[in-house]
Write a structure and sequence with these properties.
By secondary structure, this protein is α/β, with parallel strands linked by helices. The chain has a single domain, classed as Rossmann fold, CATH 3.40.50. The strands form two sheets. Strands 3-2-1-6-7 form a five-stranded parallel beta sheet. The chain is globular. The two termini are 15 Å apart.
Length: 199
């Protein structure tokens, strides 16, 4: 069985949550059993191109191909995008820009963040006119562009399961299951239960 992995799973697996989020702590605690199932090839974990682009700015342990990642010894399958497209990811002219949310690092210097590639990705996702994608965005909530793209990627690659540690996505995706969309969004605890034959 193939499981498409959401970006947040890679991030949470390498940087466990703090004590203020017990739900997420429980999800992360279930991940080792899921990863063990992937190592013994009981499941095939898959990754989308857009997920790799999202991880580009993440701290190194989040990158699945690096040794510090819990995913480093697992062969991650690649899935095709949901439709053919081309876009610019990063340009040599990208510069850090001052943001209203940036704080002063010390007197006289400004902390600047590289955001051009993030803005470019959001612009790409906002510009998609695929009707099925737009319906997914509407069903999941307007701020769930990446999640809608991930689910559409799973659907068009005939992958039944998407693994996430995003509580909001897991809750929003329940309506997709009720509508028999063909893609089930699972948390690590839910996937572990299926692997154990409990669900």
């Amino acid at each position: 069985m193939r499981v498409l992995v959401d970006t947040c799973v890679f991030q949470h697996a390498s940087r466990p949550p703090g004590p203020d989020d017990p739900w997420l702590q429980e999800q992360v605690a279930a991940l080792p059993e899921v990863l063990a199932a992937a190592r013994r090839r009981a499941i095939s974990l898959m990754v989308a191109h857009e997920t790799l682009f999202e991880l580009w700015g993440a701290p190194p342990p989040s990158l699945p191909h690096l040794g510090a990642s819990p995913f480093s010894e697992i062969e991650l399958g690649r899935v095709a995008p949901p439709f053919h497209y081309g876009r610019m990811i990063v340009a040599g002219t990208d510069r850090p820009r001052k943001r209203s949310t940036d704080k002063l690092r010390k007197r006289g210097t400004e902390k600047l963040r590289r955001q051009d590639w993030v803005d470019r990705r959001k612009g790409f996702l906002r510009g998609i006119r695929d009707q099925e994608y737009l319906r997914l965005v509407k069903q999941l909530g307007g701020n769930k562009l990446e999640d809608a793209f991930l689910i559409l990627t799973a659907k068009r690659n005939a992958i039944e399961w998407v693994l996430t540690t995003d509580k909001h996505l897991a809750n929003a995706a329940r309506q997709l299951q009720r509508k028999a969309y063909g893609v089930t969004v699972l948390t690590p605890i839910e996937l572990r239960a299926r692997l154990r034959g409990e669900a």
